[in-house]
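re: ur question from the group chat, yeah i did fold both. here u go
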Amino acid sequence: MANQNWARAERDALCDLLAETGPDAPTLCEGWTTGDLAAHLVLRERRPDAAPGIMVPLLAGRTERVQRRILAETPFPRLVGLLRQGPPAWSPMGLPGVDGVANTVEFFVHHEDVRRARPEWEPRQLSAAFEDLLWRRLSAGRFLLRRVPVQVTLAEPEGRTQRLTKNGKQARVHGLPSELTLWTAGRGRAARVEVTGEAEAVNVLSRSRWRM
């Protein structure tokens, strides 16, 4: 499975689920339906002129307007088809090597955003290879948690640990790499993890909010 394209697999699985749920189903993305999520992902790959607002708050207004327009003007099956097709050759997201780096975690998290917003969901049994890849990508969580005033260490069942932040009292988050990925992406309420450590640090983490 070393050559498995995990980004492609998660993209296809997400598209299958979107086609099943339709545009009005809930997601874990606050305020977004499945239609909003699909429009966001299509914008990210096909509207580089509007995509900077995903990361830059000053430009977010334009990004939101373009996203709403995409959703309003594109039939949902067409939107899912564009997402399944992937970025066009002229898109920065279509450059060689970008897919695995930029999309593996992105599509895993958004796939779970739809799955775990449904009633009676259960975690998927992911392969050891995919769990290992997600573990290696968890260092990106340092950026997401950079303003959290707690020393956060991630711990997975095999005994490996990663320290994401260095300031404040100590807390440790235990779980499978897939669950830790969701936790670091701000989906703590849906992630099956255990948080231990100094009471003040655990309390701060329970109140803190961050998003991928």
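okk and heres the other one u asked abt
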Amino acid sequence: MSPAAQAESTRQLILQGLDGRHVVLVGLMGAGKTAMGRVIASRLGLPFIDSDDEIEAASTMTIPELFENYGEGEFRDLERRVIARLLGERQRVISLGGGAFMSAETREAIAAHGFSLWIDADLDLLFSRVSRKPGRPLLQNRDPKGTLARLMEQRYPVYGKADLRVKSEELSRDAMAGKMIEAMADHFVAAEKQNA
């Protein structure tokens, strides 16, 4: 089978396994949800959307401005509502903000309308990525690496409830997206065999 035919076969297998559900990427800031989401969406022939972009559009404020003006609680409430709206729309690949999956209500909505994929990255990889990109409200303090470590402790057990976990590595975007697509395909093949 040619590489193009193999890619199309994998794409069809994943779309069949999704059965109209969204691919929802979860993980901490810096895990690569947006970068990987764009590549995966392109390979699957689905639209891509970043929930943070949608939150900013709905509020006409940036995420840091929302945190500063309204606090994390109000931000999380808006985030939950925006994600619920996105999950009710047409199938796509959705990148969630790092804290969104912590909401039990959001996890239930994703379970009903999506397939959650956790991009699991270690502390050093995350910190090397987020330190290059300013404007992360939760890291605006004297010990951003320590804060990131604490977020990992709090969030990773909850992220572990995702349908699938893929370990992030220092790979090119294409290679990492390929690894994630392969993991999804393997997941759906295994699920099909289990149901047979």
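fwiw on the second one: The longest helix spans residues 63-87. The longest strand covers residues 114-120. idk if thats what u expected
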